[in-house]
Write a structure and sequence with these properties.
The complex is a heterodimer.
Chain A: E1 2-13, E2 18-24, E3 36-40, E4 48-56, E5 59-65, H1 69-75, E6 82-89, E7 102-107, H2 112-123, E8 129-134, H3 143-149, E9 152-157, E10 164-165, E11 179-183, H4 186-195, E12 200-203, E13 219-222, E14 225-228, E15 235-237
Parallel strand pairs in A: 7-8, 7-11, 8-9, 9-10, 11-12
Antiparallel strand pairs in A: 1-2, 1-6, 2-5, 3-4, 3-6, 4-5, 12-15, 13-14
Chain B: E1 6-8, E2 11-13, E3 17-19, H1 28-31, E4 60-63, E5 66-69, H2 78-92, E6 97-101, H3 106-117, E7 122-128, H4 139-142, H5 145-156, E8 163-166, H6 174-183, E9 188-191, E10 195-197, E11 200-201, E12 206-207, E13 214-217, H7 222-235, E14 240-243, H8 249-257, E15 262-265, H9 268-271, H10 275-289
Parallel strand pairs in B: 3-15, 6-7, 7-8, 8-9, 9-14, 14-15
Antiparallel strand pairs in B: 1-2, 4-5, 5-13, 10-13, 11-12
The chains are: A alpha/beta, B alpha/beta.
Chain lengths: 245, 304
């Protein structure tokens, strides 16, 4: 983990409330796709965790949805402003388990961390199949970016206004896959857990205190004991997950 | 002896900075970030007799100038702390450490204290009679002078190490609790633990925290902590550890002038993991600004 200042290079809306922020700074501690950064926002006490979408040299890309006070403040920031970030947080996805035909399933703002994962998998010589799920056409983002990487991309919308109508799990077993990686809202993760036919990894979201393992604010129960989403997670093995309700 | 050195119940500290229990784990995670041996000491995660998972999610909420937590004393239990956590702690921290103990009965407090008393690296026992996030124990011992005294006496009987009673601010008369602990043999007092609070989730029309209530910490509680430390320090002779919302070297001086012999820093570690290192670095220059030669001389300087 590192604490350092990043300069905002761009902060642009991708949809009505989803923004992409590119920042320049010391990305040295970001070692795996699926990790997150924790952002100090002026006027708020707690930092806000956001997953890493991409890293290229010293440029970090974050995609976030303006839903609460913190992310709404972020959406008003402009190029040239600086942000205090804790980087290199969380375990990230394990690429070594991908096999020959990995499947990536993203839902809404769960899509961003899969981008760096897809990039790394392609770098490792695999062609990931990617299913991106959104509520409706106006919320769709990053389809073309995944295609440009060389992924086999399918988009689903709940209302059928774009791509295939339904949830990502509706098409999950259309083609064989060796391992899955997913990130999205918890109901989606549960559905993937139930419908998937292979082992896989899922990334979880929690309200966090510190983001680096000190406060036990984000603990969850797993098959192998209590884990901190911020430290032993946010990525969990399917076999380890214990749904609490 | 440096300018920053202080004494806490007969054990010297290089400086008065002590990360507070529950914000610093068992130390080794922060040891990856900086050399934690620069600290005066630290108070490790509140330890109970049995392992505890703690409360349901969510456990954390933002508040103006602070945060709520309802972690609920998650810890691996005293046996695991002794067999697993303390050996890891020993590798990265080479000073006496403060053992924070919680309980749901007098027996539990004494069992855990007796076990930790045997651990060489434990310098002080900080007995938490003030956790607001667990039911049927914890804070209830800290809201009644007679019960606070009973825990103090029982713990003192099973240890030779200095016993520091950690008090709750959720009382009408903090002085009576502090005096009851002093009269029962406490070697020191630490205060304040968090304030019992609540937030409501507008969408769900329900408390934001799964536990309903949570403990408020952070800058918002600093003036309250100053007031309570001042009142307690004025009325007891044993050393007082001041905590509650400290986030700068200036805050440290203020807390000590209010009567604290040393300070604990809690929530600030969670938003800035380097805060204790930075405060220790900043203290000499800030002391110069206020013409303070030795920090120990300012304790209680504001008491009238």
């Amino acid at each position: 983990m590192k604490q350092s200042l990043f300069e905002i290079m761009e902060n642009t809306p991708l949809t009505r409330d989803v923004y992409r922020m590119k920042l320049r700074g010391d990305t040295g501690d970001i070692t795996r796709p699926g990790q997150f950064v924790n952002i100090r926002i002026a006027g708020l006490y707690l930092r806000r965790p956001v997953s890493v979408c991409d890293v290229e040299g010293d440029i970090l890309t974050l995609i976030y949805k303006a839903v609460g006070e913190g992310t709404r403040k972020m959406s008003g920031m402009t190029a040239g402003e600086t942000l205090d970030l804790l980087t290199g947080l969380g375990n990230g996805y394990d690429l070594s388990r991908a096999g020959d035909a990995p499947l990536l399933l993203g839902g809404g703002v769960g899509v961003p961390p899969l981008y760096l994962l897809a990039k790394e998998l392609i770098r490792a010589g695999k062609t990931p199949r990617v299913i991106l799920g959104f509520n409706t056409e106006s919320e769709v983002f990053y389809e073309n970016e995944f295609r440009a990487l060389g992924c086999d991309v399918m988009v689903t919308t709940v209302d059928g206004t774009y791509g295939t109508k339904g949830f990502v799990t509706g098409t999950i077993n259309d083609k064989p896959y060796t391992f899955f990686y997913t990130c999205g809202p918890e109901p989606m993760l549960k559905a993937v857990y139930k419908t998937s036919k292979t082992s896989g990894q899922m990334s979880f979201e929690r309200r966090m205190g510190c983001g680096f393992g000190a406060c036990m604010g984000c603990s969850c129960k797993t098959i192998t004991g209590s884990k901190r989403i911020c430290r032993e997670g946010p990525v969990m093995d399917k076999e380890d997950i214990l749904w609490e309700d | 002896m440096g300018r920053l050195s202080v004494d806490l119940c007969g054990i010297g500290l290089d400086n008065p900075i002590i990360p507070a229990s529950g914000t610093f784990g068992y130390g080794y995670e922060f040891a990856e970030l900086y050399d934690i041996n620069m600290l005066g000491t630290f108070s490790f995660k509140g330890t109970t007799r049995e392992p505890r998972f703690g409360n349901a999610q969510p456990r954390i909420a933002e508040t103006p100038g602070g945060m709520l937590n309802a972690v609920g004393l998650q810890n691996p239990g005293v046996q695991q702390v002794i067999s697993h956590e303390l050996p890891l702690l020993k590798k990265c921290f080479h000073k006496p450490v403060m053992a924070n103990v919680s309980g749901f009965s007098i027996d539990e407090y004494t069992d855990v204290c007796a076990m930790l008393d045997k651990e060489e690296q434990v310098g002080w026992l900080e007995v938490n009679i003030s956790c607001p996030n667990v039911h049927g124990g914890g804070m209830s011992f800290g809201t009644d002078p007679a019960q606070a005294a009973e825990v103090t006496k029982a713990v003192k009987a099973v240890t030779t190490k200095p016993v520091i009673m950690k008090l709750s601010p959720n009382v009408t008369d903090i002085v009576s609790i502090a005096k009851a602990c002093e009269d029962a043999g406490a070697d020191g007092i630490s205060l304040i633990n968090t304030l019992l609070c609540m937030r409501i989730d507008l969408k769900k029309r329900a408390p934001l925290l799964a536990n309903g209530t949570g403990g408020l910490s952070g800058s918002a509680i600093f003036p309250l902590a100053i007031r309570m430390v001042y009142q307690v320090a004025k009325n007891v002779k044993i050393p007082v550890i001041g905590l509650g919302g400290i986030s700068s070297a200036e805050n440290v001086l203020e807390m000590m002038m209010a009567g604290a012999a040393c300070v604990e820093i809690g929530a600030a570690n969670l938003t800035d993991p380097f805060i204790c290192r930075d405060i220790i670095r900043d203290l000499p220059a800030v002391m110069d600004k206020y013409s303070i030669q030795n920090i120990k001389d300012i304790t209680g300087g504001a008491l009238k």
